[in-house]
Give the backbone structure.
Amino acid sequence: MEEAISKALKNYFGHDSLRGGQQEVVERVMDGVNTLAVLPTGGGKSLCYQLPAVMLDGLTVVVSPLIALMRDQVEVLQRNGIDALRLDSTGTEKENEATIDYITRSKLKMLYVSPEWLSQSSLLELLKTKNVSLVAVDEAHCVSEWGHSFRPSYLRLAKMVRKIKPRSVLALTATAGPSVAREIRKAFGILKRDQVQTSFFRPNLHFLIRPCADVDKDACLLDCLSDPSSCPAIVYATKRETVESVATMLRNVGVHARAYHAGMTAEARSEVQDEFLAGKTPVICATIAFGMGVDMPNVRTVVHYQPPKSPEGWIQESGRAGRDGEVSKCLLLISENDRALLKNFVVAQKPTRRAVENIIGRFFSQGRRAVVSHYDLSTLNDVPRTALDILIARLEILGLIVPDEGSWLWCHAVPLEPIPKILLGFKPAEQKLLKPILETRQRVNLTEVSGGTAAEQQKLMLLLSELNASGDARMKFSHSLNHYRIRKQPDRLSQLTDEMYQVILDHAGDELSRVESVFAIATSRKCIAVSLLAHFGEKLAEPCGHCSSCLGETRPRKLPQTPVDEITPEELKVVQQVVALRKPALASPERLARFLCGIHSPGMMRYRLYQHDHWGLLRRLSYEDVHGYAKAQLV
């Protein structure tokens, strides 16, 4: 076995040996054993499934939410002569159809797929007919509702994997503490003895902390980047505005830096990422949206311009430095004002009970089937997608709802043949339904056309899909709708609302405790690496020897704090003027407070309120204080 592994490793990947932990994982997978690999960022998780994939007879399916990772790995594998393809949201309809066709008629070696794609019944049925030797589940911590990156698509993943009946399952993660690891093992039927975990400690990473007032952060950052050996560097900030301002500041002093955040177009983000990977841009200023699945081994510095939201985020984002094993800096700039900033995000994003009631009511007011728009549920109720995902996942766990096939709200049909010719073969009733959609040449509301019921919408979608597949008409669908079967109506809607709202409160409390953990580590005298690893249940035999604590750098117990000016009479007058506009999107104290604090919530984004002149007027104040002012004005 070892000889065969070594030969394949050299022939396909050019490596002479595996790293610690990789050998154990690969041998288990080759023996058909379900395995959990908990390896730190940069620990070589990808090779744990790529190497068995080229050695095993059948197809290896890699499930990952990281589109950048899938794209890059597939390109590299193809260059190495390994037959690999991917299915994700970035592929065109033509590309995806070609991939499905190739899977159907050939012996594909590796298929990378997003969890959402795997949930499509047609792909699942196809994979059930194939000899699937391995399913590798990347970012497996997403299965845990109480992890730091829960994804509802992972909730159903274990069930779908069982339907495929692979020879073995490999779950991989870089950020699983003991409780999250336990949930992963339970979901995928992995024995505790088959959890392979290497140390999260990477001796080449030097954790440094600089307590400094907000006005001094630019100088600290410039001092860190002044050494040419500090680049390439990633500078993380919490808010998009901060990302942009820091990038501008660096450019103004001659440092070639670019911004990267979720507010940019996909094309712009790809351009920035590609330039960084090519070495054309030495410094990236980003929100945590940057770095997931990006394989750049020589990042020399990671700076947290503002603290991460959790110890998991701290160690994962810092772990993007020094993947080549060379010494790299992980610098945290921190002030007491940052505590209020991070708490603001948690408290401000917490949905109201009324919002939770509206969402639950939408599901259970439609009869035996519910058709909902996740976008509308989120933006109209100003509820973050994470909180919405948790609510829907809970309803699934309770057995109240079951996901069904989806549909679209809008369709723009462009006939490519004469309409009478296109409609040949369809039944008279079907022709009557399709003809107006083809004739209007404008966007059509499919909910109105179908009559509004879930069953009729699904029938219409099947017809339109058939029409699209024929090539006689080009369809452009938009605004996805999610369908759910209602298995059971709640006994008391108000009681269910209370229970779901308590779940949201519990999650908010959990997030706040993680914020406090970050500040506790930052102000402690203990070795930073020891403190971070303790969060993952790991004990270091001795201090790291090269973090700020081990180097004897004194840090104040009380972090620097910049005094914040109270609201002025002029600002209060502006708030009154905003209230007088009577915008529905600002009709509650919570929404008005988010607007005044400059917090990018779903409602703010839907109505583009971030473009308003008074957006973020009181961002210097705590959300709780601004909420008090907002409440007084809306009485």
